[in-house]
């Protein structure tokens, strides 16, 4: 890469809470922490898990949550890993998977 060019790496993170004290975390700590994704997604996730824990039917709520989560993720997929000018096995490789 030429000097002065910056590279950007996009990655998945489990840290979806913006902490009021600064930074991000995977759980709420203070009352003024905030969810970085859509609030509707948080509400749907809480609803189906609450129903599940209470023994109530939750399949429809879980489906609504899954649909909202898929919409939030979009259709972005990782690029294939290129080794020696060829894609590994001709499929999309994920960074946590070792090609065989």
Short description:
The protein is an alpha+beta fold and 100 residues long.
Describe this structure in words.
By secondary structure, this protein is of the alpha+beta class. The protein has two domains: 7-36, no CATH class; 37-90, no CATH class. The protein has two helices and five strands, in the order βββααββ. The chain has helices at residues 39-54, 59-73; strands at residues 17-18, 24-25, 34-35, 82-83, 86-87. The strands form two sheets. Strands 2-1-3 form a three-stranded antiparallel β-sheet, with no helix packed on it. A two-stranded antiparallel sheet has the order 4-5. Helix 1 (39-54) packs antiparallel against helix 2 (59-73).
Secondary structure category: alpha+beta
- Order of the strands making up the biggest sheet: 2-1-3
Amount of helix? 25-40%
Largest sheet: 3 strands, antiparallel
CA-CA gap between termini: 30 Å
Coarse morphology: flat
Domains, number: 2
Strand content bin: 5-15%
- Report the mean per-residue pLDDT as an integer: 80
Rounded Rg? 19 Å
The number of distinct helices, counting runs of at least 4 residues, comes to 2
Number of DSSP E strands: 5
Uncertain segments: none
What order do the helices and strands follow? Answer: EEEHHEE
Topology:
Elements: E1 17-18, E2 24-25, E3 34-35, H1 39-54, H2 59-73, E4 82-83, E5 86-87
Antiparallel strand pairs: 1-2, 1-3, 4-5
List keywords for this structure.
alpha+beta, two-stranded antiparallel ribbon, 100 residues, three-stranded antiparallel sheet, 5 strands, 31% helix, 2 domains, 2 helices
């Amino acid at each position: 890469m030429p000097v002065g060019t910056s590279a950007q790496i996009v990655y998945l993170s489990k840290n979806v809470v913006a902490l009021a004290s600064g930074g991000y975390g995977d759980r709420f700590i203070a009352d003024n922490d905030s969810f970085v994704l859509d609030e509707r997604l948080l509400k749907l996730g809480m609803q189906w898990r609450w129903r599940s824990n209470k023994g109530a039917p939750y399949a429809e709520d879980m489906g609504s949550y899954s649909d909202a989560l898929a919409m939030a993720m979009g259709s972005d997929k990782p690029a294939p890993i290129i080794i020696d000018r060829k894609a590994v096995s001709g499929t999309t490789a994920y960074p946590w998977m070792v090609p065989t």
